[in-house]
Write a structure and sequence with these properties.
Layout lengths: L1 E3 H4 L6 E3 L6 E7 L4 H10 L4 E2 L2 E8 L4 E8 L4 E5 L3 H5 L7 E4 L1 E2 L2 E2 L1 E3 H15 L13 E4 L8 E6 L5 E8 L2 E8 L3 E3 L1
Antiparallel strand pairs: 1-2, 3-7, 3-8, 3-11, 4-7, 5-6, 9-10, 12-13, 12-16, 13-14, 14-15
């Protein structure tokens, strides 16, 4: 059985499942790559939002340096709590928002228990991970990123958790250099 949003006190014209008595969250569809901007704007208007972020890497600049960034876990969506729907109507500045995610003519809802599980998953993904022991000391690899792209290197040390020490032959000399394992590929 469905009840209308007017009786539930939610988004006008939308319907929510009748069994939703507790707090719930709805997904707001956003233009791609605008999630963080919209989240900050909605929070400045005191709207309860949740944008789970996960760590990632991107390359920037001429030297293609790797930079750690945080990206949305649910790309193209922001979760909005049900008590904030009326406040959304009061925003007068244009936002790159397409509307609420719906299933048929019902809002797609996320319960509090599902939100807690999603947030715990976000925390698990944010924890640093140890490098897989896929390399062996003495193994030859090719550098696939950075200023030494294309050079062959020999693995000399695996002891430092996130970085691997390699030996690169430059100008007739063997030079030790710490790099991330993602910069290397097997030959």
């Amino acid at each position: 059985m469905l009840i209308t949003s007017e009786t539930a006190g939610t988004v006008p014209g939308a319907m929510v499942p009748a069994e939703m008595h507790d707090r719930f969250w709805c997904a707001l569809r956003i233009e791609p790559q605008q999630e963080i901007k919209v989240n900050l704007t909605l929070r400045s208007h005191r709207i309860h939002t949740c944008l789970p972020l996960v760590p990632g890497w991107t390359t920037r600049g001429v030297r293609r340096t790797k930079v750690a960034v945080y990206r949305p876990m649910l790309r193209g969506y922001i979760l909005v709590r049900d008590d904030s729907f009326e406040d959304l109507c009061g925003i007068r500045q244009p936002l790159p928002v397409h509307g609420f995610l719906r299933v048929g003519n019902c809002l797609a809802v996320v319960t509090e228990q599902e939100m807690q599980r999603l947030l715990s998953q976000e925390q698990d993904l944010a924890k640093p991970r140890a490098i897989q022991a896929e390399w062996e000391v003495g193994e030859v690899a090719r550098i696939c990123d950075g200023p030494f792209y294309g050079l062959n290197a020999t693995i000399t040390d695996l002891a430092n958790g996130e970085r691997i020490t390699i030996q690169v032959s430059l100008l007739g000399r063997s030079v030790p250099m710490p790099v991330e394992s993602s910069f290397l590929e097997k030959l």
